[in-house]
């Protein structure tokens, strides 16, 4: 399983379009693009739209409890939860060998100048998996404006830039598809 995700819950004063509707949108779009292109990877791509992240990650905990017996089937868990502004790359948590593979995959995104691989992945919703050794990735992007809108009444759809979201979706699509279509799973 290659898991792509964002969460649906928002803070009570805003719509949650940026935090974290954007992550949900690009995760959905990644799978839609793969399907529309007629691509069929070797492994399962799974979209999870988390709930309860702001209430202590209860949705992620429940999902983990229901699926942890199959942990060896999870290739990578990916979460976008820092907005969907201009992307720069991926945060990655995993073995050195897996990191080298992810760095090679990121070279495919050179035409849109999104090739960086940062030292750690972050995400409340994927933390259980990464703690237990599943490689993890989080979208990294320009968060200079993130806290202008984070948990505020300003977190509406007008914050979202369609072009930047398309670039974020491209990153999510390429990385998830290539990992799901590799002959072997990422090394643990």
Automatic annotation (TrEMBL):
InterPro entries: CPQ (IPR039866), Peptidase_M28 (IPR007484). One of its GO terms (biological process) is thyroid hormone generation. SUPFAM superfamilies: Zn-dependent exopeptidases (SSF53187). Keywords: Carboxypeptidase, Endoplasmic reticulum, Glycoprotein, Golgi apparatus, Hydrolase, Lysosome, Metal-binding, Metalloprotease, Protease, Secreted, Signal, Zinc, Zymogen. Coiled coil: none annotated. GO terms for molecular function: carboxypeptidase activity; metal ion binding; metallodipeptidase activity. It is found in: Endoplasmic reticulum; Golgi apparatus; Lysosome; Secreted. One of its GO terms (cellular component) is Golgi apparatus. Residues 1-172 form the Peptidase M28 domain. Homodimer. The monomeric form is inactive while the homodimer is active. Belongs to the peptidase M28 family. This is Carboxypeptidase Q. The lineage of its organism: Eukaryota, Metazoa, Chordata, Craniata, Vertebrata. The gene is Cpq.
């Amino acid at each position: 399983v290659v898991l792509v995700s964002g969460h649906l819950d928002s803070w009570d004063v805003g719509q949650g379009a940026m935090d974290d509707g954007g992550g949900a949108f690009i995760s959905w779009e990644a799978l839609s693009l793969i399907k529309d292109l007629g691509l069929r990877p070797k492994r399962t791509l799974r979209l999870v739209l988390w709930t309860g992240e702001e209430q202590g990650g209860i949705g992620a905990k429940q999902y983990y409890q229901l699926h942890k017996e199959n942990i060896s089937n999870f290739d990578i868990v990916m979460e976008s939860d820092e907005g969907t502004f201009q992307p720069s790359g991926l945060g990655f948590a995993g073995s050195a060998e897996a990191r080298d593979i992810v760095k090679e995959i990121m070279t495919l995104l050179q035409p849109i100048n999104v090739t960086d691989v940062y030292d750690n992945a972050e995400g409340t919703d994927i933390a259980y998996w990464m703690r237990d050794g599943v490689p993890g990735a989080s979208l990294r992007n320009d968060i200079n404006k993130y806290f202008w809108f984070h948990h505020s009444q300003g977190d509406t759809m007008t914050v979202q830039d369609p072009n930047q979201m398309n670039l974020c979706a491209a990153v999510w699509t390429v990385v998830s598809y290539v990992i799901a279509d590799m002959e072997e799973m990422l090394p643990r």
